[in-house]
UniProtKB/TrEMBL annotation:
Record carries keyword Repeat: yes
Protein name (record): Pentatricopeptide repeat-containing protein At5g12100, mitochondrial-like
Organism annotation: Nicotiana sylvestris (Wood tobacco)
Pfam families per the UniProt record, alphabetical: PPR, PPR_2
UniProt cross-references to PROSITE patterns, sorted A to Z: PPR (PS51375)
PPR repeat start and end residues: 143-177, 178-212
Protein family: Belongs to the PPR family. P subfamily.
């Protein structure tokens, strides 16, 4: 218990009000016997991470409280994942995510999105694709963010064929691809030397009323350079009917 107060003091820092919130939450936890899975102290803990940035202390306290099979609220849990991810603690993001899921707690699309993003950042596409399949099994709708993250990881490893399958799945599920989506796949095709496929995507952008941007222009121009077709840059500029 003394260790919990010590960590709480560090997390709250000079913010006296925050410290009192922690103390009140801890007293409620100690004085009232409850079987509720959502723990007020743990919820306050995860909400304090963005300001404290004391990840090691937060991790220790998180798992100390978790030993009593207590969990933060889903919204607080998502804040926790977002904070860990933004601070580039990708392994810990996955560790916390897997811990909660292992207890049968149902997470949402946002939770999965942050876990998938962390897996891709770690270069673990196997884990990312596994989580993607879990989302499908849990009947959670995949959004543009999730598709873009996984497609980006696949293209980075030159697995553009698999990325294209996800792109086609997006269209089948009526998830509208953005210019970011198109740029990711175009870059993947250009890296593989499949410039014609990249140019076809540019035409798809036009038919879908998705305006290209400077990234689109640079991607296609870079593809032409790699293929030694520098005599054709005008067609890129002409094809990018709007490039601002």
């Amino acid at each position: 218990m003394a260790r919990q107060f010590e960590i709480i003091s560090k997390l709250s820092g000079s913010n006296g009000f925050c410290c009192w919130l922690f103390v009140v939450a801890l007293l409620l936890q100690l004085l009232f016997v409850t079987t509720a899975a959502v723990d007020p102290l743990l919820t306050l803990l995860v909400l304090s991470i963005p300001e404290s940035k004391l990840i090691n202390e937060a991790k220790e306290l998180y798992f100390m409280i978790r030993e009593d099979k207590k969990f933060p609220s889903l919204s607080a849990f998502n804040v926790f994942l977002e904070s860990l991810n933004s601070l580039r603690h990708y392994k810990l993001t996955l560790e916390v995510f897997d811990d909660v899921v292992s207890w049968g707690i149902r997470v949402d699309r946002f939770s999965y999105g942050k876990a998938i993003q962390s897996a891709v950042k770690l270069g673990d596409l196997g884990k990312a694709l596994e989580l993607l399949n879990c989302m499908r099994k849990d009947k959670l709708s995949l959004n543009e963010f999730v598709y873009n993250v996984v497609m980006g990881g696949l293209c980075k490893e030159r697995r553009v064929g698999e990325a294209r399958k996800l792109f086609d799945e997006m269209l089948e599920r009526r998830v509208a691809p953005s210019k970011v989506t198109y740029n990711i796949l175009m870059d993947g095709y250009c890296e593989k030397g499949k410039f014609e496929e990249a140019f076809k995507l540019r035409e798809n952008m036009k038919s879908d009323n998705v305006e290209p941007n400077i990234v689109t222009f640079n991607t296609l121009l870079s593809g032409l350079c790699k293929l030694g077709k520098m005599e054709e840059p005008d067609c890129v500029v002409e094809g990018l009917w709007i490039c601002t």
